[in-house]
Amino acid sequence: MPRTALRICPLCEATCGLTLTIEGTTVTGARGDRDDVFSRGFICPKGAALGAVDADPDRLRTPLVRRAGRLREAGWEEAFAAVAAAVPALVAAHGPGSVGVVLGNPNVHTMAGALYPPLLLKALGTRNLFTASTVDQMPKHVSSGLLFGDPFAIPVPDLDRTDFLLLLGANPLESNGSLCTAPDFPGRLKALRARGGTLVVVDPRRTRTAALADRHLAPRPGSDALLLAALAHTLLAEKLADPGPLAAHLHGLAELPDALAAFTPEAVAPACDLAPEDVRRLARDLAAAPTAAVYGRMGSCTTRHGTLASWLVDVLNILTGNLDRPGGALFPLSATAPAPRPAGPGKGFALGRWTSRVSGHPEVKSELPLAALAEEIDTPGEGRIRALIAVAANPVLSAPDGHRLDAALERLDFMVSVDPYLNETSRHAHVVLPPPPPAQSPHFDFAFNGFAVRNQVRWSPRAVPLQDGRPDECEIHARLVLAVSGLHGSAEPSAVDDLAIRSTLDRATADPGSPLHGRDPARLAALLTGSDGPERRLDLMLRLGPYGDQLGAAPAPGALTLERLRAHPHGIDLGPLEPRIPDVLRTRSGGIELLPAPIAAALPRLREELAGRPDGALVLVGRRHLRSNNSWLHNVPALTGGSNRCTLQVHPADAARLGLVDGGRARVTADGGSLDVPVEVTDTVRTGVVSLPHGWGHDRPGTRLSVAAADPGVNVNQLLDGRLLDPLSGTAVLNGFPVAVAPLPPAAAAAPPPLS
Ligand SMILES: Nc1nc2c(c(=O)[nH]1)N[C@H]1C(S)=C(S)[C@@H](COP(=O)(O)OP(=O)(O)OC[C@H]3O[C@@H](n4cnc5c(=O)[nH]c(N)nc54)[C@H](O)[C@@H]3O)O[C@H]1N2
Ligand SMILES: Nc1nc2c(c(=O)[nH]1)N[C@H]1C(S)=C(S)[C@@H](COP(=O)(O)OP(=O)(O)OC[C@H]3O[C@@H](n4cnc5c(=O)[nH]c(N)nc54)[C@H](O)[C@@H]3O)O[C@H]1N2
Ligand code: SF4
Ligand SMILES: [Mo]
């Protein structure tokens, strides 16, 4: 008899609640959970294919260990013993920096990814940390760190209540949203319009999101910071700025007009390729709307001025009085965030506390740019990375210059991948540790509840029992921590969780501001429920969080505990977002730093962009497909084919000028190399812009991706050499970089593409 089980979908940031149909231990179907307090039954084609994602026969079921140069199936004990034999010895011989850590995107979609990487980094003591953030949202962390003193204080647009949404460089109709967790983002945008609100989309492509909008502006890629600066300039020049009650918390408002003086609508118009009157009208409409929110994502972040654009997004929210008010952009309050503290000066946010060894890139949020990983491995000298631990990361495809990284990984003394697939990156590992598929893993959204358009909390236990003898991903991480700490075989994985619990409780009981001050940490630890270490840690975080019972110190009737959450399988709604200023501010001044020094120092570089680009110059932007997910869903037949293809989209006018034909082939060349690609002529991209999706290029040997390898596509990031970064955040410029495109004769199409 089939049964059903609830599972929050881990495949994108929308976190939809799913009802899985299960026969035996196989997921045979998935539909939206109509009773889910947040997603209310919404599902997309990826969620509907969760069963196929779960059951992919290419998923690894046992660890792989390299012996005599070849990866072979091995037992778990053997795999962890291999890590224990290699890593501590390397650290002893060459120092903690000889081990690098790469954390990829799925870490924000697993419980293990939230709970263990900080412990792993602490155990290793390395500063060589690289994550997907520096090919993604790092500019937003930097702007929030500088403005509000906390890189995680990221305001989200109040989608369900706003009257006016200005959305830049995001395509939630395909991506389902990012840094704005909103199941059924498309429905929420339609509802905004249905209630008389206005949606303005800024995107060089006429995306499905743009097609839904009241107004679509298609500027030149990379010019968002200029456009946003001109909007802010107009608000200030036309006396439309009105921060309202925020004014009491603002520092630097008086200096802002001077800093932005150069960016008039007329001055930015040529570089943006927009009419000045359209820019002015947008500023006036934004100011006139009863409530409004400005929201920018990938397309505004991963550009040359990504941090400035991210900063200006919130400058506009502030100048229009929309930051921190219903209908504007608000700070969510996640159930596992630390309980709010009284307002007051904080530690602030510093950049560049150390720099990378080879190129001297400043650290940001204790991370170095992912684009610099290859050079940190392949450049000889003291401090070189000799071993790498990659957790849920496929940087050979997701980071600039995969060929160089590919070659660099081959030179490592030791590499571990925690990954369910043998893919372009994990094929270099000495040990591959595969986590079980989603249905066998419990789920809690530690990361995305902090960016959700409604405060709510949900937890999914395992839908299907763990396969015999298989550790879940939390246990894999815990055992990895033990192995690198020299404790393999001498401590249980639960000791890692106990230590984490103990250190949190030690801190809380020693803190005079905590309701737990003066209590006995050991007795408090004994109060925690949960059947294993990660569950007890979740219980601890919920109970010490803003809605928690403070372990009995605040036993309100509805106070959160894991037990209470368990009793609510469809989740608990915690209400709409509420104003949180000043409590959320952690700057040294205790206020909002509207014009922080690193930003002011970067503005002259933005002014140089006013000169514009030479006529006829082509730039490349990315795109996402609804049935894709970065580099790792191309192996699921239900999610491939149709329009989900790796083609170069070109505007008809550019195609005619360059001699390209639909269905023909072209060679794209940029700093990092050349790619031969199929051409798709479409007027959904603007002139001067071509578009190629990322996450493709599955043609390397030694992988186990039978479906993906049959239609490999090309790796767009091979066009980059890793040098083009947003300097403030170290984020790679993935959108709006210059390329040359030339037609290929049909005969040449048969020849293999040049490697670089
Ligand atoms: N040109 C260009 N490049 C881009 C982007 C772009 O828009 N354009 N987007 C960037 C963005 S936003 C991101 S986030 C990065 C993503 O970059 P990465 O994080 O490097 O890549 P992903 O494809 O998300 O997958 C990472 C790995 O996680 C594995 N994985 C899947 N599920 C699990 C799991 O449950 N546990 C574990 N341990 N592993 C799992 C997959 O097999 C895969 O090997 O790519 C970036 N690269
Ligand atoms: N289906 C699907 N969903 C996903 C993913 C996926 O791979 N597939 N990946 C997930 C991840 S890791 C992330 S981070 C999110 C990202 O989600 P989004 O932020 O929505 O990212 P994209 O869909 O890449 O949309 C970026 C848009 O920016 C536009 N753009 C490019 N350059 C510029 C520019 O200079 N200015 C402006 N204004 N626009 C520009 C592009 O044309 C594109 O439409 O999606 C997540 N969801
Ligand atoms: S929108 Fe995202 S979370 Fe929802 S079903 Fe689709 S992939 Fe899963
Ligand atoms: Mo991402």
UniProtKB/TrEMBL annotation:
Gene3D superfamilies associated with the record: 2.40.40.20, 3.40.50.740, ADC-like domains, Dimethylsulfoxide Reductase, domain 2
Keywords, comma-separated and alphabetical: 4Fe-4S, Iron, Iron-sulfur, Metal-binding, Oxidoreductase
Signal peptide location: none
Coiled-coil annotated spans: none
Keyword Iron: yes
UniProt keyword Phosphoprotein present: no
Domain 4Fe-4S Mo/W bis-MGD-type, chain residue ranges per copy: 2-58
InterPro entries in alphabetical order: MoPterin_dinucl-bd_dom, Mopterin_OxRdtase, Mopterin_OxRdtase_4Fe-4S_dom, Prok_molybdopt-oxidoreductase
PANTHER family according to UniProt: NADPH-FE(3+) OXIDOREDUCTASE SUBUNIT ALPHA, RESPIRATORY NITRATE REDUCTASE
Name used for this protein in its record: Molybdopterin-dependent oxidoreductase
Species of origin: Streptomyces antimicrobicus
